[in-house]
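Team,

Forwarding the record for the chain on the shared tracking sheet. I've put the sequence and predicted structure together so nobody has to dig through attachments.
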Amino acid sequence: MENNASTNTSSLPAGLSQDSEQDNILHTLLEGYSVYVRPYLWLDILTVILFLIGGVVYLKTAVPLYRSTCQLHVNSQDLKVTDMRGIVDPNFQPGDTFINTQILLMQSTEMLSKANQLAGIQEGYKGPIVKRVPGTMLVDLSVESHNPDVAAKMANTIAEVYLESVRSRKVEITFTGMNLLRDQLEEVRKSREVAMTELLEFKNKHQIFNLQENYTALVSQISSLNGIATDAKLEETELATTLASIKENRSNAVRLMPYLVPSGSDAGGNLSSLKMLYFTHETTLPGLLMQYNEAHTAVKTHRQVSQMLKDAQEAEVDTSIDGLELRYQRSKKRRELVDQQIADLRQQLTELDRISGDYRMRETACESLDATYAMLINRINEIKISSAATTVDTSSIFLVMPAFKAAVPFFPNTGKVLRMALLLGIAAAAGLSYILGSINNKVTRIEEVNALFQNKLPVFGAVPFFEKDEMELLNSTGEETIDEVFRNIRTSLNLSMLTRGSRILAVSSPLPRDGKTFIALNLARSFARDKKRVLLIGLDLRKPRLDKLLEPFLPEGTERKGISNVLIGDCKLEDVIIPIKQFGMDVALSGPVPPNPSELLSSGGLKEILEEAQQKYDLVIIDTAPILAVSDTLIIASHHVPILLTTRLFHVTRPVLRSLRDRLAQVNISLAGLIANNVDAPKNAYGYYSDNYGYGYGYGYGYGYGASKTSKKKK
């Protein structure tokens, strides 16, 4: 059954789920209202009214305060000499620091003392209260007093004293500044003359006419010599390579010399001529050998000439090597001379840089002294102009608006006091309601019960608190108050769909001592008086109360068998039905208390009993066990039996009802309606009604779910 409930919930559409969440929130709010607000609404209203009265009393008794405000323009951008060395005015600082300093000056003890002497005020006042107008250079100076004339006069006097102090401070600083500036001007003039003399002497000593041209000429010479040095280095390298190659291949020097000697060399040309002559001479040798033999004089002469040509070639090679050695030494010497010239020029360039730096340093010092000299002269002229023109109107600190006498007090503020009293009253009322609601968790109205069930249950009636004993109430004639109460409940049930669609209903309660058995009995009696065949079944198998209530009305010698006997198969339903002639109805008592009531009710016999009873009677009313105490009632409800919940007001608590609601939700069982008991009980009924009838007739459970108690009547 629980699984079915969870499945149905998960299959709900998204829109319906959101509506359900909104309904839950609304019901929670309504529940909170009914628990914490509605029971103590009169107390909340009284609390708010008392706080408002307190606020009115405060307004009537409080001494009024008047505030007068004057406005000043405060700006540090004035002609002053505080930028110069040796002149320090701590009251003049840039930006916000300056304004904050001026505010502290306005509030200083010295200013207040002078203002008191000037105004001759003896009455008490508060102030000055100085605040800057955000985003501007304006400052509001306010004074508060019980006398509006005193407030206005002191505000204007403090402003006047402050402006006068600014003027006198500026005149004093200007006089001191002028003297100091003149001294500084004389010092700068002397320093400037000394610097100019040193600059001219340095220029003449080093013959500086145009440093840039000298620098450019030296750089140009170094660049030119760098090119010459590069060429000399290349030539030196080439000659050294040639000599090394010839020495490594001396045997082939004659053949390689033309390729190694640089083009244009005489040695290369002579060697080539000798080689040509040698080759030409050798071409004639074959012809001679054809004519003559080796011993012939012509052949021998030919070979001697060839040897002479070879020797001439070798001599030419030696001569070329000596020439290359000479050229190599000459090229090396030339390259060393060029490198020495470059080094000398670079030394001159470094010296020129040093001289140029010294010159520029002296020149910059002279220019700085010139600028300082000019600035001092300009500042002296500015101070002279400022001193001649300084008044309150031309200064950057001046009065914008004087203070006027206040027509109405600013304190106490009627609207603010009443709003504060209202807020405090509401807060106190809310706190008091929460504390009382948390301490007293008993339910006193049927609306609170219904709110816990989201106001979805119909309320069929309410049983008031009765002073009479329960037996006196059961012996009513039919025209008494209790008869009218249950007649109204019967009418509500007849008008609802509950009794039209079903011939059976059960009456239960959250816990014992809620009066469910007495209500079930009187409800059955009321339907019987309406000419209906009614059967009242006692299915509270653990601690049956119906047997004790009907004891005086049972026929003598009645066998005490009941529903428990029918469930175990000991007899049939018709065997345990007892007619009650005084009430005009039949009763089936619970019978002997079985050891296993839940298992007995879960057997198949209960369904047959209920079906048989509905076939024979117009209405079957069942008295069940409390829902939270045991699970018997839930088993009965699973057979499609509507459950009427009886709650005993001023006794049942909210936690109990919440537990009942959650328990029913777990097993997916809905209640058919509510009947309230003990309605409108007096406030001292917490100890009285528990054993007198109304709701409390003494339901002491001892077997299975509660400790038994003896019902005693208190008078």
